């Protein structure tokens, strides 16, 4: 135990030393590079070299977990976008000088323990007086919002650039006059409109808008991750002549979220931003005494937010209430949800409704926190099941979800896709599939980038086998995150997404809305946003894809956008619109012997990345040679299969090698069984109506004679075929 602790401490120190020597404070370095140096400094023991369930060596996993203590001590920073990059802080540089040897890691552990005790104590103290969250992502969001309150609302300064004044009367008034009520450029997006409307404005005005956008997207979870939040804010910052960077406080907060606001705050950003711009203008118009009164009283702040001009937009207005007074309003921005929760739990405070619905909800939370002795969440069982009539463990409803906090030692907050290609053990997959690692990497990159891929090729090339292996690796083996279906000519939109189905109810035939696999996996993915969910569609080209996908084609290209659906009530949370979560991935397989890729409609080909698996093309080409080298065979299988495919005229009718990929030495009887049971029936079907004599042209005896002209073998095969023929 002591030796393991010493090795852990030495590797932790090696990580900081590598960063100190190779990067400036705050400059991110790939984790693979840091680990390589740490492993070289402290070689792995035999036990540490064993591969665990995550496909990593035990020693590396232990090192990653240990790094969380360095983060908690404030010495190490992990990039919040989940890309696996670390940076040393100024405090980390000082710690290297202050603490020698193993003392460095011991000190980080002590500081971690102390901070946890302090956090638990602060949470415990607040349970009786405030709506509390113990989620680290929410704590980061609220730290950023406190900075906005202190630097912006109270001081009139800038959250992004301390020392500048942007939340002051002059800057706010300039932005308000340029943005509110100004005509929008038709067809232009939000940032393009900004570029036109603020073209002649100062950098201060543009910076104020960047901070407003950051404030608007700050608490959003599930539907928008770190990358999208950063991209949107940086797009506004680029409008400045002398731009600034996003401060670490906001950068780290962008990695999480407090609530899923639905589609409104995503698709109506112009309206949401207008409310905040109007709020800023109304704020600077107040005198100092009134500002102090409004800011420090939750009810006064609510009245102020609700009085601001703009759309009613309850989710955006409740978001602003939550950011300033989280202990009173909590992370629930849906009016409907707040009403239903209040109705379901009013008994916790005596069963009497008060005049203030928000205060009732706060009192309910305080009562539940006192009863349980810890923070509560209405979006997790068992509380969730009390206020939503359709909620039950077998089929959880699609509601706002609390962000999932990363396990201690994880490298970063969850990626919006639910996986990162860099985290997949490609070498292990390559060995398992006997395919080139570079090809596997390209498939994973395309799946991460596009969200959907198709593996296509003739029979026997391992398309389904490869798709299943990729699914297992991406979902980390979680069966609940996998769904497999097979398309066929009668498959419909109603089967795939949602439609009305006849049901017997109280002795009468009724039609009820039934959800298909895409709707169900999307619901699962929204509830579990940090995990990739894979829908494997076998034989994807056998159905009429235009009919099956319908309007859902749009969502394959525009993840996060909402679209109106064919059937009322079939959308997100029982609504009429639906959005495809970014962590829903689709892997399709396509047998080109059934239908050529050229026959797919252009919409499908444009939205999927295609990867060919063909016996004559890498990575399948040569797979049989590699297999035989590892599993020696009596008969020349690679030459035999090459001869078989050379006799097949149509390229798409050629056959893949998977029929022969068996670890045992295939006898003549084994080969004969493969030919008669698998290959000849397939070839008969493909050559139906032609003048090809399949039994003669593709017989095992003639093929083997061509590549291995040994009379005894040929006689044995001829005898076997003759016997089979006579028996039939």
Residue windows where pLDDT falls under 50 for at least 5 positions: 390-414, 710-728
**Beta strands, count:** 12
DSSP helical segment count: 34
Mean pLDDT: 83
Computed over alpha carbons, the radius of gyration is 31 Å
The structural domain count equals: 5
Which percent bin holds the helix content?
40-55%
Q: What about the largest sheet?
A: 5 strands, parallel
Q: Which strand order spans the largest sheet, edge to edge or round the barrel?
A: 5-8-11-4-12
| Structural class based on helices, strands and sheet pairing | alpha/beta
Beta-strand proportion: 5-15%
Q: Estimate the global geometry from the Cα principal axes.
A: globular
How many angstroms does the end-to-end distance come to?
A: 70 Å
Secondary structure elements and pairings:
Layout: H1 2-22, E1 29-30, H2 31-41, H3 58-72, E2 76-78, E3 85-88, H4 90-98, H5 103-126, H6 136-154, H7 169-179, H8 190-197, H9 203-217, H10 226-237, H11 248-253, H12 264-267, H13 269-284, H14 288-296, H15 298-307, H16 314-324, H17 326-329, H18 335-345, H19 357-372, H20 383-387, H21 426-433, H22 437-450, E4 452-457, H23 463-474, E5 482-486, H24 493-496, E6 498-505, E7 508-515, H25 517-527, E8 533-538, H26 545-549, H27 553-557, E9 563-564, E10 577-578, E11 584-591, H28 602-607, E12 609-612, H29 623-630, H30 637-646, H31 668-686, H32 694-697, H33 700-707, H34 711-727
Parallel strand pairs: 4-11, 4-12, 5-8, 8-11
Antiparallel strand pairs: 1-3, 2-3, 6-7, 9-10
């Amino acid at each position: 135990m002591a030796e393991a602790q010493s090795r852990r401490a030495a590797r932790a120190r090696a990580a900081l030393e590598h960063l100190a020597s190779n990067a400036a404070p705050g400059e991110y370095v790939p984790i693979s590079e840091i680990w390589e140096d740490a492993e070289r400094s402290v070689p792995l023991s035999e036990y540490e070299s064993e591969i665990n369930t995550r496909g990593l060596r035990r020693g590396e996993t232990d090192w990653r977990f240990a790094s969380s203590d360095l983060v908690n001590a404030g010495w190490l920073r992990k990039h919040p976008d989940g890309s696996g990059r670390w940076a040393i802080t100024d405090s980390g540089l000082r710690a290297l000088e202050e603490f020698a040897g193993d003392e460095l890691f011991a000190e980080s552990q002590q500081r971690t323990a102390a901070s946890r005790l302090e956090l638990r104590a602060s949470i415990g103290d607040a349970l009786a007086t405030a709506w509390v969250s113990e989620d680290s992502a929410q704590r980061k969001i609220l730290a950023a919002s406190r900075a906005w309150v202190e630097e912006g609302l109270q001081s009139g300064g800038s959250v992004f650039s301390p020392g500048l004044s942007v939340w002051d009367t002059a800057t706010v008034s300039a932005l308000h006059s340029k943005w509110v009520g100004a005509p929008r450029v038709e067809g232009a997006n939000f940032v393009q409109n900004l570029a036109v409307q603020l073209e002649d404005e100062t950098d201060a005005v543009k910076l104020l808008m960047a901070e407003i956008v950051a404030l608007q997207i700050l608490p959003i979870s599930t539907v928008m991750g770190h990358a999208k939040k950063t991209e949107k804010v940086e797009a506004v910052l680029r409008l400045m002549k002398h731009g600034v960077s996003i401060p670490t406080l906001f950068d780290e907060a962008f990695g999480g979220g407090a609530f899923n606001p639905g589609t409104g705050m995503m698709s109506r950003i112009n309206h949401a931003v207008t409310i905040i711009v109007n709020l800023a203008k109304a704020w600077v118009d107040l005198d100092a005494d009134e500002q102090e009164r409004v800011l420090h009283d939750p009810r006064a702040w609510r009245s102020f937010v609700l009085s601001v001009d703009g759309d009613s937009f309850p989710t955006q207005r409740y978001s602003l209430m939550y950011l300033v007074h989280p202990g009173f309003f909590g992370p629930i921005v849906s009016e409907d949800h707040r009403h239903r929760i209040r109705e379901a739990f009013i008994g916790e405070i005596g069963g009497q409704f008060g005049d203030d619905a928000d205060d009732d909800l706060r009192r309910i939370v305080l009562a539940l926190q006192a009863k349980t002795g810890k923070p509560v969440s209405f979006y997790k069982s068992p509380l969730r099941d009390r206020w939503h009539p359709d909620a039950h463990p077998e089929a959880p409803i699609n509601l706002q979800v609390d962000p999932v906090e990363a396990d201690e030692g994880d490298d970063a907050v969850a990626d919006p896709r639910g996986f990162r290609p860099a985290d997949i053990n490609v070498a292990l997959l390559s060995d398992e599939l006997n395919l080139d690692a570079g090809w596997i990497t390209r498939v994973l990159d395309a799946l991460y980038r596009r969200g959907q891929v198709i593996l296509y090729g003739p029979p026997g090339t391992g398309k389904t086998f490869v798709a299943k292996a990729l699914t297992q690796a991406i979902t980390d083996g979680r069966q609940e995150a996998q769904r497999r279906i097979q398309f066929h000519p009668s498959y419909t939109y109603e089967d795939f997404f949602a439609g009305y189905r006849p049901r017997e109810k109280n002795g009468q035939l009724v039609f009820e809305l039934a959800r298909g696999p895409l709707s169900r996996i999307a619901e699962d993915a929204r509830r579990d946003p940090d995990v990739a969910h894979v829908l494997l569609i076998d034989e994807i080209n056998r159905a009429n894809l235009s009919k099956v996908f319908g309007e859902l084609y749009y969502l394959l290209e525009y993840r996060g956008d909402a679209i109106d659906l064919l059937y009322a009530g079939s959308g997100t949370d029982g609504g009429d619109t639906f959005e495809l979560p970014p962590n829903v991935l689709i892997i399709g397989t396509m047998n080109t012997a059934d239908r050529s890729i050229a026959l797919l409609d252009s919409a499908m080909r444009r939205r999927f990345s295609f990867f060919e698996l063909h016996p004559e093309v890498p990575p399948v080409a040569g797979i049989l040679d590699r297999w035989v080298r590892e599993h020696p065979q009596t008969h020349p299988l690679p030459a035999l299969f090459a001869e078989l495919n050379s006799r097949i005229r149509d390229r798409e009718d050629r056959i893949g090698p998977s029929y022969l990929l068996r670890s045992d030495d295939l006898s003549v009887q084994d080969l004969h069984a493969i030919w008669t049971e698998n290959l000849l029936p397939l070839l008969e079907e493909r050559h139906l109506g032609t003048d090809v004599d399949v039994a003669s042209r593709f017989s095992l005896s003639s093929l083997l004679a061509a590549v291995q002209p040994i009379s005894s073998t040929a006689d044995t095969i001829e005898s076997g075929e003759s016997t089979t023929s006579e028996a039939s």
